[in-house]
Specification:
It is a single chain. This protein has a seven-stranded mixed β-sheet, sandwiched between helices. A three-stranded antiparallel β-sheet has the order 9-10-12. The protein has two domains: about 140 residues, Aspartate Aminotransferase, domain 1 (Alpha-Beta Complex); about 240 residues, 3-Layer(aba) Sandwich (Aspartate Aminotransferase, domain 2). Helix 6 links the parallel strand 5 and strand 6. Helix 7 crosses helix 11 and helix 8 packs across helix 11. By secondary structure, it is α/β, with parallel strands linked by helices. The protein contains twelve helices and twelve strands. About 40% of the residues lie in helices and about 15% in strands.
Length: about 400
């Protein structure tokens, strides 16, 4: 059996998105900035996509800027908010310890340029305390940036509550919604979101294309200079085919969202229940406030890399955490932030289900993980020390 269970890293492009992309490449290949008919037909496709995406998140089309993906959108949002704050003498930014590195690395860059950053801890369940966030806001706070859904453990943050707090305090609020858009309802007005980042390949669209929502009135700082595209805020000829495919994929994902949630939730819970039967393991993140597709575990006494290789041999594609740091030797900063010690964090497994996952696949995943964990522990010196009493169990 072959099972792709790393949808938090990337999703397979849907037939709808692929067909839309091919149609654009064949029939709407003009440069959308050109004045002649072929170019203007491409421009129409571009604006149709912008309108479709805007309607889905309850934004105005002029508030949607197309990017190369979530990381670019994150960078532009944070650097723009920083410039706005700096002009007002506000140089304090609040975020969390479990953000994606596109956020964390940009914050480090801003710290080098004189900004002060407060990284809030999260509770053991992986969720930030909204009251603690409120208390962290200062007179010089210019931005709060909190991801909607964590990419490693799948926990859902109280975005609406955070948005309300920011609005009450006159602070810009950005959310990295890369793991959320297309998978949970997003209403930027109701949630008081000022800026939002999204990426097409997380909801069955193509790679290399995404979008940023920036509320009207927010002055964006350009990352790329050279042309007047995207109202002068993102130079370069737009990827019309990719953008149209992204809009088609998002529309399809939103239309199927509730049905997918109802089907995947029992499958997710079945896997969690089955893996909990493994001795000395722990579910990472809140058991209920998580995406219906996301499962994250730590298994004491093994290395996650070996677990992934052996699961791959059994036909299961999974991961130990963020695909962006899969080559890193250090344990996940997210797992450390929720209280997992280094030795335990190294033995992590992330399973992120696709919309077409089945209960039969769930049973195979449970069976395979149990077999591989038992096998690895069989010749693990760490496990030998734990079972002999030389070391104490943590989980």
């Amino acid at each position: 059996m072959k099972i792709y269970a790393d949808n938090a890293a990337t999703t397979k492009i849907s037939d709808t998105a692929l067909n839309t992309m091919l149609d654009c490449m064949k029939n709407f290949y003009g440069n959308p900035s050109s004045l002649y008919t072929i170019g203007q037909k491409a421009k129409e496709k571009l604006e149709e996509a912008r309108l479709s995406i805007a309607e889905i998140i309850n934004a105005h089309p002029s508030e949607i800027i197309f990017t190369s993906g979530g990381s670019e959108a994150d960078n532009q949002a944070l650097l723009s908010a920083a410039e706005i704050g700096k002009a007002k003498g506000k140089t304090h930014i609040i975020s969390t310890a479990i953000e994606h590195h596109a956020i964390l690395h940009t914050l480090k860059r801003l710290e080098k340029n004189g900004f002060t950053v407060t990284l809030l801890p999260v509770k053991e369940n992986g969720i930030v305390d909204a009251d603690e966030l409120k208390s962290a806001i200062r007179e010089d706070t210019c931005l709060v940036t909190v991801m909607a859904v964590n990419n490693e453990i799948g926990t859902i943050q109280p975005i609406k509550e955070i948005g309300e707090i920011c609005k009450e305090n006159g602070v810009l609020f950005h959310t990295d919604a890369v793991q959320a858009v297309g998978h949970m309802p997003i209403d930027v007005k109701a949630m008081n979101i000022d800026m939002l980042s999204a990426s097409a390949h997380k909801f069955n669209g193509p790679k290399g294309v995404g979008f940023m929502y920036a509320r009207k009135g927010i002055r964006l700082t350009n990352l790329i200079e050279g042309g007047a595209q995207e109202k002068g805020k993102r130079a370069g000829t737009e990827n019309v085919a990719g953008i149209a495919a992204m809009a088609a994929a998002l529309k399809e994902s939103v239309e199927n969202m509730q049905a997918v949630k109802e089907r995947l939730t029992p499958i997710r819970d079945h896997i969690i229940k089955g893996l909990k039967e493994i001795p000395h393991c722990a579910l990472n993140g809140d058991e209920r406030e998580r995406m219906c597709s996301s499962i994250s575990f730590c298994f004491e006494g093994i290395e996650g890399e070996s677990l992934l290789i052996l699961l791959d041999q059994k036909g299961i594609s999974a991961s130990s955490g963020s695909a962006c740091t899969s080559g890193a030797l250090d344990p996940s900063h997210v797992l450390l932030a929720i209280g997992r010690v280094h030795d335990v964090a190294h033995g992590s497994l992330r399973i992120s289900l696709g919309a077409d996952a089945t209960m039969e696949e769930a049973d195979y995943i449970i069976k395979s993980v149990k077999e591989v964990v038992e096998y690895l522990r069989g010749f693990s010196p760490v496990w030998r020390d734990l079972t002999s009493g030389k070391k104490e169990f943590i989980l």
